[in-house]
Design a protein that fits this description.
Blueprint lengths: L1 H17 L11 H5 L26 H27 L3 H28 L9 H10 L4 H29 L1
Helix pairs in contact: 1-3, 1-4, 1-6, 3-4, 3-5, 3-6
């Protein structure tokens, strides 16, 4: 049950925040709405959080690491999304940044609520390698930022998908 709870929360993150084609553009602001799952999907509803109350003692070390990485990855994507929305050049990339900020902030809050509910403390700061990427990205503006951000989003989400598959198979 614990594995399914973690995967459900984090799959929500992947579906809501990361579902996009592997291109470097966003068609329009409507993409954010198109990514919302239909009511009959397997995505969690807000009240589903209350059903995930397995205690932290039931979490394996791999589950804890996975939750921690999802939390810090979500924080990083929200931070960078906000920065890109304000400092990017291309309106589509800026829109992508805003969407990533909005979606990851929402999912991060849901993940925190779940962790609090089971008595688990998620990291409150980025991992050093993530902080380095944020610091580097925040020195950029305009077209250079747009290019670096879209490249990073594709690479980062490929890693996220691999991590979700591994957790589902082995976690």
């Amino acid at each position: 049950i614990m594995k399914n709870s973690i995967l459900a929360i984090l799959a929500l993150s992947a579906i809501v925040s990361c579902k996009k084609t592997e291109t470097n553009t966003v068609v329009s602001n409507e993409d954010s709405m198109a990514m919302m799952a239909p009511k009959d999907s397997t995505m969690m509803e807000n009240n589903a959080m209350s059903n995930m109350s397995e205690p932290v003692k039931d979490m394996s070390a791999q589950d804890k690491m996975f939750a921690d990485e999802a939390a810090t990855g979500g924080m990083m994507e929200a931070m960078l999304g906000e920065y890109v929305a304000k400092n990017g050049m291309n309106e589509q990339v800026k829109s992508l940044g805003q969407m990533m900020n909005d979606d990851h902030t929402k999912v991060n809050n849901e993940l925190k609520a779940w962790a609090t509910n089971i008595g688990y403390t998620l990291p409150s700061a980025l991992m050093p390698e993530q902080q380095k990427m944020v610091d580097e990205m925040m020195t950029m503006k305009g077209a250079d930022l747009d290019k670096a951000y879209t490249k990073m989003m594709v690479e980062d989400h490929k890693k996220d998908i691999a991590a979700f598959k591994k957790e589902a198979a082995e976690g």
